[in-house]
């Protein structure tokens, strides 16, 4: 059985890596023959995250390669697509190339429809506001990372919708309770575009810093300026991310309350919990489901609550360990690759048999 996987990024892009690439060994074990084609390479990721020049010619070339590949789609029995085949291209063009008798599964881990229907340019909004809705409507299955995304698919009368969270491999994400620093280490992991959320709680972070005995470690932010706060910025790498998170005493995930954030899948929280770290996060979207308040972490609704919960965890190592183990248990039961890979394979089998 041949599957064509069309991702947005190569394995350097977190969404493609965790929602597609990490499942490939399981699919091959089931006898599926995999062809995977990322639309955008690591050169585009470096443009987004590291200020490199936009690889414009390469992007155009990649679009044409995808067109030619889809013209040969009859060589495959199933297409698994990340979000859309051709970003910023009208849906009628995409439908001509993608829609066929071959089953189509489309995967969403963020509110990519808001990239168009909330766009500040009125022409873009007019042209593309229904783009993702159209893709959902002709897909055979929509895989959604949370209920906010699945609700959008239901509104568009998708034939079948399955919630599949973004998960980690718990064989790779391991935990230990060895002290990594004498200071209480508050940690965050992400990318430069998401580092903006740290500014939402900077007054709380500054208060914690002024109280002393605190260390801030931010992974993958790129350049970050917060007056009155000293912090360490670590460059993200796949090889080191687990070890770096293990150095945290608490993992944080602040957000703002908007529709875009409601589409997020709480993946930072899952990474922290997999390493048995307590968490503090804004109770927006799926965050309020992942964080069991007072059990595996705290839901912070205000700067005052951020300050309060950071103080509580700073002063109570036993509570940190207890919450961390509770979080690890949740990941093992609900947000692990081993639990969700069989669910994905069942979705594939069902759509192929129908």
Characterization of this structure:
The strands form 2 sheets. The chain has a 6-stranded parallel β-sheet with strand order 2-1-3-4-5-6, sandwiched between helices. It is globular, with a radius of gyration of 21 Å. It has helices spanning 14-19, 24-29, 42-50, 56-70, 91-98, 114-117, 122-128, 131-138, 147-155, 202-211, 241-246, 259-262, 267-274, 287-290, 303-314, 317-334, 337-353; strands spanning 2-9, 33-40, 78-82, 104-108, 141-144, 161-163, 184-189, 214-219, 232-234, 250-253, 279-281, 297-299. The chain has 17 helices and 12 strands. 43% of the residues lie in helices and 16% in strands. The two termini are 15 Å apart. It is α/β, with parallel strands linked by helices and 354 residues long. Helix 10 (202-211) packs parallel to helix 15 and helix 13 (267-274) crosses helix 16 (317-334). Helix 14 links the parallel strand 11 and strand 12 (297-299). It folds into 2 domains: 2-167 and 337-353, Rossmann fold; 184-334, Rossmann fold (3-Layer(aba) Sandwich).
